[in-house]
Structure formats: C-alpha cells, structure tokens
Amino acid sequence: EEQRSVLLESAAQFPVPHGVTLSYGTAGFRAEASKLSSTLFRAGIIAALRSLKTGCTVGLMITASHNPVGDNGVKIADPDGSMMAQSWEPFAEALANAETPECLVELVFQFVKEEGITFGGERPAEVLLGRDTRPTGEALLEVSKQGIKAIIGVVPLDMGIVTTPQLHWMVWRKNKGLNALELDYFMQLSESFRCLIEMVPEGITKQNFDLRLIVDGANGVGGMKLEQLKELLTGQEIQVRNACKQGLGVLNERVGADYVQKEKVAPCGFGPNDIGLRCASFDGDADRLVYFRISRVNINSVDLVDGDKILSLFALFIKEQLHMLNSGIKDLKNALPASLGIVQTAYANGASTDYLKQLGLEVVFTPTGVKYLHKKAAEYDIGIYFEANGHGTILFSEDFLSKLQEKKNYFAASSAGSDPLKACLRLLAVSSLINQAVGDAISGLLLVEAVLQYMGWTVQNWIELYHDLPSRQLKVKVADRTAVITTDAETQVLRPFGLQEAIDAETAKYDRARCFIRPSGTEDVIRVYAEASYQEAADSLAQSVSQHVD
Ligand code: 16G
Ligand code: ZN
Q1: What does the longest C-alpha to C-alpha distance in the chain come to?
Q2: What average pLDDT score do residues 521-540 get?
Q3: What is the DSSP-derived secondary structure letter of residue 136?
Q4: What is the pTM of this model?
Q5: CB 382, CB 400: distance < 8 Å
Q6: Which of 10, 51, 65, 190 is catalytic?
Q7: Please, what sign has the CA dihedral across residues 404, 407, 412, 413?
Q8: ipTM metric
Q9: Sheet (strand 212-216) strand order
Q10: pLDDT digits (tens, 9 = 90+) for 393-428
Q11: 101-115 vs 2-12: helix axis angle to the nearest 10?
Q12: How confident is the model at residue 114 (pLDDT cuts 50, 70, 90)?
C-alpha cells in the first residue's frame, strides 16, 4: 500500500506528453530531450525493478549516442553489463506509454506479480546511473533517480559523466565483486595495454613505427575521458581533437564516428596537415570506433577503416595467438583448443566476410543491434563481433579464461620466454583490455594500436587487408515500417509478399551483387543496402529496390 501511494504521487509529477509513443528499440528510448521527462522517470522504475528481480546492480545510461545534441535517451544495462533482457522490453514500452499514474501503477503491480518480484526484500538493490555530456543529461538524471527511489528498497548511485561502455563495465565489475570506479577502469586499461606493448616482438618498435595518432572525440564524453587516460599511457603519442572543451564545437555536429563512416569525410578540425597520419573517431558516447586517413587524392574525403576492418585485424591477431599457443606442443594434453567465432551483420562488407572465411574462420550473422551480436559471440570460447559502424568487442568465456590462466602458470614454470607463454599472456591482456560488457571505443582503440605495433603495420598495410566492394545505403520514408518483416539475419523479406522476389530480380541484373532491406530500429524508415562490383551498379541497385519499397 505504501508502495502504491509513493508511485502514484511521484508519477503525477511527470505526466506523459501528448502524441508521443515511444518504443524500446535497439538503442533503448530515444527522442527529443524536452519530451523525455516522463520516460526517464519510468526508466528509473524499470531499472529498479530489474535490480530487484535479479538481486544485482543494474545500470541506467542517459545518452542519445551519435544523434544531435538536442536529443537524448536512456538504456538499461543488465547485471552482466549487457543490454537489458529482451523479454522485458514489452513491459518497458507499456510502462513508458502508460497514460495516467493509475495506469502506471496497475502495470507495475501486475508485472511485479507475474515476475515474482518482492518489494523491499533483504537483498540490497542498486542502480548505477551515468550520462553523456548532453546539456539535458543532468536534469534527466535527477528525474530517473526519482523513478528509482519510487520503488521501495532500491537506491540510485550516480556515476556522473561517463561513456556508455564505462557504465556497462562498472555494472559488470560491481556484480563480480570487483572494484568498479572510473580509476579502476583507467588502471585496468592502461596496465593491460602496457603489457601488450611490452610484448611487441623485438625490432618492431625500433623500426619506424609511427606512434602518432589523432583522435576525433565527437565533442563528447569519449574525447574527454581519453585525455585523462592518456596521462597513464607511456610510449603513445595520442592527440585528442574535438575533446568537448567548453564553447568549442557541438556534440556530433560534423564530427564523430557516425558522420565519418556514413559520409566518408573528415570530421571538423582535421585538414591537409594531417595527410598520411593515422586518425580515429569516436561517436558521442564512445561505444563506436572507426579509423580513417585523410585522402591524398581528395582532401575532402577519407580512406575509411570501418568496424569490419577493425574486426578483421582483431581476428587475425587472435587467430595467430591461438596458433602460437598450440604450436610446438608435443603432448596433446597440453594443448588448449578454443572455439573462435566471428559475428557480423548483413551490413558487413562482403569483401570482409570473404577475407575472414579465407582465413579459415567461422563467420555467423545476426540481425542489427548489439544485443543480438553480443549474445551470439558469447557462445564461443572467444567471440569477436563488430558492426560495420564500429561497434564491437571480443568476448572471452569464463571457462576459457580459467584454462588460459592455468596454461600460463604451466608454461611460466616449464618454458619461460617461450612463444606459447607469450601467446597466453597476450590473450589474457587482451581479455582485460577489451570491454567484456559492450563495444568500447577507448579500449578498442588501445587494442588496435597494440596490434598495429605488434604487426609493425601502417594504416596502409591495414587498409590493404582486403578491398571493400562498393556499396550504397538509402532510406525510404514509409507510413508504417513494421509492415516490413525480415528473416535470416535481415537478409530476406517475409512481408509484404512478393517484395523479396522483386529484390532478387533486381539483384540478378548485376555481377557479385547483394541487396537487402530492413526496418530501422531508431528511425521511421526502411533502410536499403546494396553492394556490387562497381559503384554505379550498387547505386542503381539501391535506387531501384527503393522504388519497390515505396
Ligand atoms: C542502434 C544500435 C546499433 C545499430 C543501430 C542501427 C545498440 C546499442 N545500438 O544504435 O547497434 O547499428 O541502432 O540503427 O544496439 P538503425 O536500426 O536505425 O539502422
Ligand atoms: Zn554510441
């Protein structure tokens, strides 16, 4: 009864705006910031209930990622640091859209009953809150706290301005009973990075490996945090631009990974003086990373190194370490076999998939959205996933990590300085450098730098791993995007009937062509992707398929 009145009273303070229907999509709730108060209050309730249900700490992150500065949004992180379980999304959506405080209370009580949640149990329940640098973030965070506190027995803990991956990392660590402050994050990253750099084969650092790296921070939280972390790194020459300094540049405006990847142009603040240098770009909440190089041919365009190529670099490195770990082992019982899986989406450039398969790797596909990729990657001893847009990470299973630890001890005692020992140490360092909760631009960047040094590679070497097939992406505004239903990791259209046949017929007109459509999870549009052996073919295929969608 007390719970009921607390909820009614606080919900009344945050009425839902008229004519706004929200869906908990791949990116959580996202909208223009001024419309989000009631949503953020309710997200607080959802997170609090999630914490009660799981008996663990969960996370609530306030960000709209690469979207314009006027937008904002919220995502909930589960105890293991991954996205909130999909089974809760319908409830989240219903709650966000409940029109009156009475409806809200009814929904909560009904759901709590169904889920067997007890209010104010003995187990302490806690929600970690974080926000990006958006000016609306602070007020919205306060509103979310109200929502959390409206559930008796749950406490909010404000982590302040953090990257999305930092918050997910903190949740994950906290539930493992480990130190989970920002400083712990910085220490873990800098130490594992140092360990990888120390094990760069002799000679490579002494060759002319160019340590210079310029990073575009998208005028957001990532650049700011990298500036701090940089102080703990040795032997790395990182220059951060668009680092979110007061009055200098707007978040995500002609800067950031999304802009660079989609437009294939240099972000603001980069110019002719940077030709030939290795550059990287984060998105607004630093969960996406792409690399690029200012084109020598056309100063306005860039040679892009996208998520697919980052994935390929990581895959090559991991495969090599696994090989090194097991080569030269005479007694089979000392070998450590590992399942290595590569997870991509239909947006992965076909040339990257071909390359990975040529390496003999197992490549699987899931629908777009981190929750799908992450889940799939977690099925392997080592699972590497990336979206072409630069979101991805490498997951190590607990079981594999403990075996690796044993091997390390064994080799350290029996064959110090050997290749298998080094491979063990490198893999262990990678597992603590790379974020195990979610894709993380900062830790991804450090791993890229370490691997490039290990290989002694320039950006040019990296770019030449394979050559992207020309592609084109278009979007078509439609009245109802839910009318399009896809299957087979979004590569086939089930509804409307006949549309897939039309796409097949168009695709058959071109050599090595591929085309798919899918409803966006974040915008009211249908997206079209086409790939072919030359640009005009990709363009015209995308164009003609768009007309069928319309
Ligand atoms: C969200 C997803 C991202 C995906 C993008 C696609 C998460 C955390 N983020 O940003 O993975 O690439 O949506 O957007 O899952 P779209 O559905 O509008 O194409
Ligand atoms: Zn993001």
Answers
A1: 72
A2: 94
A3: T
A4: 0.96
A5: yes
A6: 65
A7: positive
A8: 0.97
A9: 237-241, 212-216, 279-282, 289-294, 302-305
A10: 999 999 999 999 999 999 999 888 899 999 999 999
A11: 140
A12: very high
Contact call for residues 86 and 371 (beta carbons, < 8 A): yes
CA 497 – CA 484 distance, rounded (Å): 10
**Residue 25 CA to ligand 1 centre (angstroms):** 8
Nearest Cα residue to 511 out of 538, 472, 492: 538
Q: How far is the CA of 520 from the centre of ligand 1 (A)?
A: 8
520 pocket-lining for ligand 1 (C-beta < 6 Å): yes
**Mean pLDDT along residues 372-387:** 97
Residue 61 has which token pair? 């992150």
What is the set of domains in the chain, with CATH numbers? 2-161 (3.40.120.10), 191-305 (3.40.120.10), 308-463 (3.40.120), 471-549 (3.30.310.50)
Which pLDDT tens digit goes with each residue over 286-320? Answer: 999 999 999 888 888 999 999 999 999 999 999 99
Q: Say whether 65 is catalytic.
A: yes
Closest CA to 278 of 224, 225, 236, 215: 215
Question: pLDDT tier at 329 (50, 70, 90 boundaries)?
Answer: confident
The values of phi and psi at residue 208, to 5°, are -85, 50
Buried b (16+ CB within 10 A) or exposed e, 475-495: ebeeeebeebebeebbbbbee
